[in-house]
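To: structure subgroup
Subject: Chain for Friday's discussion

All,

I'm putting the inputs and outputs inline so they're searchable in the archive.
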Amino acid sequence: MGGKRFMIDQSHPSRRPPVPDDDGHGDDGLEEARLRQQAIGVKLRHMFDQVVNEPVPDEFLDILRKADKKAEGGS
């Protein structure tokens, strides 16, 4: 009881310590999979940001304006 205890956050898979395999080392396959998933996540966020920052087409804005006028006019 004299030693310090450290709490490990295991709520997120990327923060979990590697699971030792038969030879006592961490599983390289799991780490590679985590890195691959992280890279995919970065690319998906980048693609999402590009879509969000695209301008709204004029045709769509016209449809929204017409809908607003109808809603204000009550018809």
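Points worth raising on Friday:
The mean pLDDT is 80.
The radius of gyration is 26 Å.

D.
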